[in-house]
């Protein structure tokens, strides 16, 4: 039996959002999506089922807030057929399910979502920063599950920045930490690798690497202070 939290403002949320869920034998708590402190009431269930049938903006923002937590729970967002077109990797959800899905499909998605997060939580080689997952064991980087093709130094640079979210490093510090103190190349090397990393992160995520004027770079969700 799974511990499930359903985040929804719908009246009679179980029947109105995902009727098939009500036919399963899991323990389900309904928490109003828009109520103050709603997320504080969501401690660490096995799965969060998020109502994406009405307020898509609230659903997306809530999913991103849940994903940013330490040890986040898997999030299964329930959508209508029309809502599927609005979902993107930036939502940071584990899976999606149509509201008219039958209990067998819902059960399978719940089971797979909870198992996937359990496997990831056991792997201490994973570094998570927002929607970016860095696997130090396999030297892979994914954004919302989509892998990036990085060179070894690009990977090491991104990993170092992501391990120190919000901290600003000078180009000289990054050269020392990533390339080593005996590297004879100039700081221009850092700028080139940062530019390549941003290009590979794409327009939706390039802002994660922030330029701090006259100082250096940091990994953050904020916007660049220098164009």
Automatic annotation (TrEMBL):
**Which positions carry the signal peptide feature in this UniProt record?**
none
DNA-binding region(s) in UniProt = 124-221
The UniProt keyword set, sorted, is: DNA-binding
Please state what the protein is called: Response regulator transcription factor
Q: Which residues form the OmpR/PhoB-type domain?
A: 124-221
């Amino acid at each position: 039996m799974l511990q499930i939290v359903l985040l929804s403002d719908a009246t009679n949320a179980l029947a109105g959002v995902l009727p098939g869920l009500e036919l399963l034998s899991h323990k389900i708590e309904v928490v109003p999506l828009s109520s103050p402190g709603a997320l504080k009431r969501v401690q660490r269930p096995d799965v969060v089922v998020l109502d994406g049938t009405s307020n898509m903006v609230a659903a997306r923002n809530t999913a991103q807030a849940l994903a940013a937590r330490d040890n986040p729970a898997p999030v299964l967002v329930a959508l209508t057929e029309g809502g599927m077109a609005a979902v993107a990797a930036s939502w940071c959800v584990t899976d999606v399910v149509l509201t008219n899905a039958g209990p067998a499909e819902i059960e399978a998605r719940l089971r797979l979502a909870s198992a996937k997060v359990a496997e990831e939580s056991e792997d201490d080689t994973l570094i998570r920063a927002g929607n970016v997952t860095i696997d130090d064991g396999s030297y892979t980087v994914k954004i919302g599950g989509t892998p990036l093709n990085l060179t070894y130094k690009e990977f090491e640079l991104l990993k170092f920045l992501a391990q120190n979210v919000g901290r600003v490093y000078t180009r000289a510090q990054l050269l020392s930490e990533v390339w080593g103190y005996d590297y004879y190349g100039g700081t221009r090397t850092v700028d080139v690798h940062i530019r390549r990393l941003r290009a590979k992160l794409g327009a939706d995520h390039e802002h994660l690497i922030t330029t701090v004027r006259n100082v250096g770079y940091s990994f953050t969700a904020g916007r660049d202070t220098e164009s």
